[in-house]
Amino acid sequence: MDSLPPDLHLRPRLLAAGYTDAELLRLRRAESVTTVRPGAYVQSGDDRLREPAAHHALLVEATLARLTAGAVVSHVSAAVLHGLPVWNLALGRVHVTRAARAGGRVTRRLHVHVTHLEADDVVDLGGVAVTSVARTIVDLARSVPFEQAVVIADAALRVRLVSPDELLVVQHRSSRRHGGPAAWRVVAFADGRSESVGESRSRVALSRFGLPAPAPQWEVRSADGTVVGRVDFGWPELRTVGEFDGRVKYGRLLRAGQEPGDAVLEEKLREDALRGERLSVVRWTWADLDRFEPVAARVRRGFSAR
């Protein structure tokens, strides 16, 4: 017996299927299988082990098998199951919520929250009870840093997993709970027009440095109405545009048969056209987001130049 079949395997089921603990130990020592958590294994070549969110989903599955009924997957674990980006959030611990007054606990791999859950706060995802997208966002907005919460809220709004009204309803119900004011900030700031983690982080950075809120995905038109281009961020009255350049931007936008160099040239011509409309163009990259003051200064210079 050299390995296990694909998928997640739990020790009780493996023993019932005829495996022995000695065989499982031999497979682990040979690195044929990887332990997701004690008593839960997958093949060591499983692609999900290399992607943090997919790895966390495995951990959720393994953990739920050990819990009694009534646990609802919540917080960052629910965000993962809903397919939302969990930028810069810890994924080593599974989060669940129980509708109870007591019994919360935190261990190395598990955080059990206890609080009231409305009927529409819980949805079924493939047979797993998970907090709704709206409840997940509000829970995270109350408990994680503003920037990380905005990334998740923007993404959910962008793909229409939730509506602004749904967020407001859930936030209103939770407004008196710990972290309520922080959650209000996230719900008010979230904008589904942000098309990536980098764009969401950019909006947060622009706000942090006191810059006026831009219009995301501004469609620039010439005097005769011709579309010159669509930009990530625009300040129409101040004749300034901002562009976030992610590392994969050009590769992602390549058309069939187009080379990266062609895309770079095309982008340069696009920028020239924007400048031809008497617009200041300010660009920044992922690395700039962690030290945004110079970018903010360039944006302000763009404002003053017009």
| Low-confidence spans | 248-252
Number of helices: 12
Mean pLDDT: 92
Largest β sheet strand count, sense and barrel closure: 4 strands, mixed
Strand content: 15-25%
Summarize this structure briefly.
By secondary structure, the protein is of the alpha+beta class. It contains 12 helices and 13 strands.
Describe, in plain words, how this protein is organized in 3D:
- The protein is of the alpha+beta class and 306 residues long.
- The chain is 41% helix and 20% strand.
- A 4-stranded mixed β-sheet has the order 4-5-7-6. It has a 4-stranded mixed β-sheet with strand order 10-11-12-13.
- Strand 10 and strand 11 form a beta hairpin.
- Helix 5 crosses helix 7, helix 6 crosses helix 8 and helix 6 crosses helix 9.
- It is elongated.
